[in-house]
Structure formats: structure tokens, C-alpha cells
Write a structure and sequence with these properties.
With 151 residues, the protein is mainly α. The protein has six helices and two strands. The protein has one domain (5-120): Arc Repressor Mutant, subunit A. It has helices spanning 5-22, 34-45, 53-60, 64-76, 98-119, 124-149; strands at residues 80-84, 92-96. It has a two-stranded antiparallel sheet.
């Protein structure tokens, strides 16, 4: 079992997260998690449009409760604020706080360092194959979920 795909992926994930969190400077500023970083990146990439929780659920492939909790934490840590939409008072748009972009840029450098470390001594061809295999595994899981729904 220890040499199985699941075990190897979990081990890799743990090492990435340990590295990610240990590279932070020891400041009092609460640093965003990888999921929070993805949310910030999405909002920055869509700064010309309003972003709502439902947008993030689809893009990040996360459940409503998960996104809600992440956003609650981000709001508590002063990374975002949620304001009632002018066009639909039932929903709140997500706004990045001013300091969030600066924190994001700093943290993004950490991500880039980790990417370089992960890719070190691996050929482009092997990396492309790895990405292809990962995408196929995701597709396999999606197919299995759909199969189970039809039972």
C-alpha cells in the first residue's frame, strides 16, 4: 500500500505544504493558504467583473460550505470584505482589501520557488507526461462520480 498512487500523492502534498508554510517570514500577518491564494488570484484576474461565492465554487471545484468557510476566514483575517450586490441584494460580492494584493505578490514568489524546486532535475517531457497523467486521474475520478450517481 505504501507504494500506491494515493500514498505517493499524499506524501508529495504534505511535503509541499510543509515547505509552503515554513518559507514564510515570522511576521504577525496571517498568510493566505493555498486555497485562499487561488481565490485571490481568481479575483485579481477578474477585477473588471463582480465576483461572488458561487463563481468560486465552480472554478475551484469546491462545495459551497467549504468556500463559505474559507471566505469567512479570509474576511476575519482582513484579506477580503463582502458587500451586498447592487444588482441582487441576495448575494454579496467579494472585494479584496488593499493589503491583500501585496501579501499575494509576496506569497506568489514562494509558490514560484516551490515550483522550481519541484521541477528541478525533471525533463520537460517528463513534466508534461506527469501533468497529463494527473489530468487523466482527475478525469477518471469525475467519471466514477458520475457513474455512482446513475446507480
Amino acid at each position: 500500500m505504501e507504494s500506491g498512487i494515493f500514498f505517493e500523492l499524499k506524501t508529495l502534498e504534505q511535503e509541499i505544504f510543509r515547505t509552503f508554510f515554513n518559507l514564510d517570514d515570522v511576521s504577525k500577518i496571517k498568510r493566505p493558504s493555498p486555497t485562499q491564494m487561488r481565490i485571490i488570484a481568481y479575483i485579481l484576474n477578474h477585477k473588471d467583473t463582480d465576483v461572488y461565492q458561487r463563481d468560486l465554487e465552480g472554478v475551484l471545484n469546491l462545495r459551497r460550505a467549504t468556500v463559505s468557510e474559507v471566505l469567512r476566514t479570509m474576511e476575519k483575517n482582513g484579506l477580503i470584505s463582502r458587500v451586498v450586490s447592487e444588482s441582487d441584494t441576495r448575494v454579496k460580492k467579494i472585494i479584496l482589501e488593499k493589503k491583500t494584493n501585496e501579501i499575494f505578490q509576496s506569497k506568489r514568489k514562494t509558490f514560484e520557488e516551490i515550483e522550481k524546486t519541484l521541477e528541478k532535475n525533471i525533463s520537460k517531457e517528463d513534466l508534461n507526461n506527469f501533468k497529463k497523467v494527473i489530468k487523466q486521474m482527475i478525469s477518471n475520478i469525475e467519471y466514477t462520480k458520475e457513474e455512482r450517481k446513475s446507480i
